[in-house]
Write a structure and sequence with these properties.
heterodimer, A: alpha/beta, globular, B: alpha/beta, 5-stranded parallel β-sheet
């Protein structure tokens, strides 16, 4: 697994010139029609397809879209407003961002499913106040996960992250392997729950 | 110490308190997959050589990209869609997962069939890689949407690692006016408190107007908790919930154990946040823009919002929303395609024809069981006589998957949950509303107030 870079240094691409974009939904990040296989790859081309291309079928780039501009073409950090990643639970949105090369998203707030999908894919969601985001948009930033800071030029801003999420990202831990280490506790819990709530446990299909 | 309903369900599912940050290992009682995002979880699980801990508690359905035309097979109108269906079928068989297949008599939209089958239970935890899993909170379950990786985690370990959310109570006092529905309650909450208003919280819906809703209305209300950015919504189970579920295929025959009586928030339980809405102030609602928060009473004018939303939807501030000309109408989705939804829409459509300007009008039942019940009452004949197409169950055009679509540039009145840019197709302009508002508007050929058709 790919641990989060320590530190991550990249230009921070704003999705919209001027005002920070609110309510960026997962249909915009990766439209359903761009999800063409049951796998997790081959999605970067469909990233932001409705905004990135003037003609989606022909893949004609819209020069006005931030990620199509030379300055931001290799951006590993995105900046947006409130409620980023709202809508569909599709993890394809995070897979598409990761495959494109994005490692962190800075926003005023995140939709909960998208936020957790980021953690599971070692992409760092950082929540910061809007005025700070407005200043950081377009700048070259350094993200230090260990210190929990985002810095640019002379300014440095602390961000919060759940302790376990931080450990997962920093060490590139697979959550399932991590939990499987607690299998004994899970088995014990289920054993006692079977007597407490027998209706939960169903007969296996023939 | 007094606790909320959420606290009680959470506490009773803690396997390990991971320590620090409030993250806990929570037992998951039920996992429900669909072919669109579940297939990704199943394929990764196989690739990693992992197995499902307890296959009897995992279910799957084909709903997202299935063809909804009568006589359907595995083929989809979306190019390449058949692979999702055949791969999901094979993977479910290998893993021993109960599958509601394309032409199963119990097939339907995941959140409609889960209660129909008694898979969701009060006080249980249920997850699905689908954002509208919150619908099932109507039964007093902690049911929420997750990603495919988390679905794999839940299947393989029987648990999820989650940070404890805050708890909000949204109280709807008083009674709804005639022809105002659960959909209008959800849209009013989001319009007044924002599409991010529920962030970080689980929402318990309470109050007289919530208690008065039938189970189908409660599902509609909880369905849109995700549009409020809440982790999920839930409602304390009462006799209506237990009567609905008792005796269903996967539910207990009777809910007479003392356990069920405790599934309520204690009188003096503390919520992190409380919102109160007077239900009598709610009108039929319709969206004007590109976020569910861009929603107004049907007799109001378009307010001033983000320029991008005005440009996409093609409506300027000050324009009355009623009277906006339409090209298409859609009744379906996990929000509003249950029997009572179809009955109320049919009540308006009966003896009337949709306007000539409506090029596409679809009625897509939420499940095959709903379809059969509706047909037994003759609702299919009413829809068809009015000019609506009557379909097989599935998610259909709630979202555009690249196959079937609305006419180019269409403006659609839709009983669905999302009016995002391009959600129902590139350039398609969506107005979300209740099924009766969709029916009234289809007849009028423009956005219309259902109260005028009562």
């Amino acid at each position: 697994m790919i641990a989060f870079p320590q530190p991550l240094t990249s230009v921070a691409a704003p999705l919209n010139p001027g005002a920070l974009m609110d309510n960026v939904d997962t249909d915009a990040i990766i439209p359903s029609r761009e999800m063409r296989s049951t796998g997790r790859t081959g999605l970067a081309e469909g990233l932001f397809a409705p905004w990135r291309y003037t003609n989606v079928d022909a893949r004609t780039l819209d020069p006005d879209f931030a990620l199509n501009q030379p300055k931001f073409a290799r951006a590993q950090i995105l900046v947006a407003g409130a409620n980023f990643g709202c809508g569909s639970s599709r993890e394809h949105a995070v897979w598409a961002l990761a495959e494109f090369g994005v490692r962190a998203v800075l926003a005023e707030s995140f939709a909960p499913i998208f936020h957790d999908n980021c953690i599971r894919n070692f992409l760092l969601p950082i929540t910061l106040p809007r005025p700070v985001l407005e200043r950081l948009a377009g700048e070259r930033l350094m993200i230090d996960l260990a210190e929990q800071t985002v810095s640019a030029g002379g300014e440095s801003h602390a961000f919060a992250i759940d302790r376990e999420a931080k450990q997962m990202l920093a060490q590139g831990l697979d959550a399932i392997d991590f939990t499987l280490d607690q299998s004994d506790a899970i088995k014990d819990w289920i054993k006692s729950d079977r007597t407490e709530r027998p209706w939960i446990y169903l007969e296996a299909q023939a | 110490m007094s606790r909320t309903l959420f606290d009680k369900i959470w506490d009773s599912h803690v396997v390990v308190n991971a320590g620090g940050g409030g993250t806990a290992l929570i037992a998951i009682d039920r996992v429900f997959l669909h072919e669109r995002t579940g297939a990704a979880a199943l394929s990764r699980m196989a690739e990693m050589g992992r197995v499902v801990l307890d296959p009897a508690r995992v279910f799957a359905v084909m709903d997202h990209i299935v063809d909804t035309r009568i006589g359907r097979k595995d083929g989809t109108l979306m190019q390449g869609g058949e692979g999702f269906i055949t791969e999901t079928r094979t993977a479910c068989k290998t893993a021993g997962i109960t599958l509601f297949d394309v032409n199963d008599r119990d097939q339907g939209i995941v959140h409609v069939i889960s209660p129909e089958q008694g898979i969701v239970l009060p006080g249980s935890t249920l997850v699905a890689p689908d954002s509208h899993t919150c619908t099932q909170g109507a039964f007093g379950a902690l049911a929420w949407g997750i990603g495919s990786s988390e679905a794999e985690h839940a299947m393989v370990t029987g648990t999820l690692r989650i940070a404890r959310p805050k708890v909000m109570r949204v109280q709807f006092d008083g009674a709804l006016s005639p022809h105002v529905t659960a959909k209008d309650m959800a849209l009013t909450l989001i319009a007044r408190h924002g599409a991010g208003g529920g962030a970080g919280h689980v929402v318990e819906f309470a109050g007289e107007a919530v208690r008065a809703l039938d189970m189908e209305g409660r599902m509609t209300l909880c369905n849109m908790a995700t549009e409020f950015s809440a982790m999920t919504g839930l409602i304390a189970p009462d006799a209506k919930a237990f009567d609905y579920l008792a005796g269903r295929p996967y539910a207990p025959a009777h809910f007479d154990d003392l356990y069920w009586d405790g599934l309520i928030s204690d009188d003096d339980a503390q919520f992190d946040r409380e919102i109160t809405i007077d239900a009598s102030t709610i009108a039929p609602m319709v969206s004007w823009g590109t976020s569910p928060a861009h929603t107004i009473p049907i007799d109001a004018a378009v307010p001033s919002g983000p320029q991008r939303a005005h440009d996409y939807i093609g409506l300027s501030p000050g324009t009355p929303i009623a009277g906006t000309p339409l090209n298409a109408a859609f009744i379906g989705s996990c929000t509003n395609a249950r029997l009572s939804d179809l009955r109320r829409a049919a009540g308006i459509l009966k003896g009337r024809r949709i306007a000539p300007s409506i090029e596409t009008a679809l009625a897509v039942p939420g499940s095959m069981a709903v379809k059969r019940e509706a047909e037994a009452e003759g609702l299919d004949a009413i829809f068809e006589a009015s000019g609506f197409e009557w379909r097989m169950s599935g998610c259909s055009l709630c979202f555009y998957a690249g196959g079937e679509g609305f006419p180019e540039g269409a403006r659609v009145i839709s009983s669905t949950n999302r009016n995002f840019e391009g959600r129902q197709g590139p350039g398609i302009r969506t107005h979300i509303a209740s099924p009766e508002t969709v029916a009234a508007s289809a007849i009028s050929g423009m956005i219309a107030d259902p109260r005028e058709f009562a």
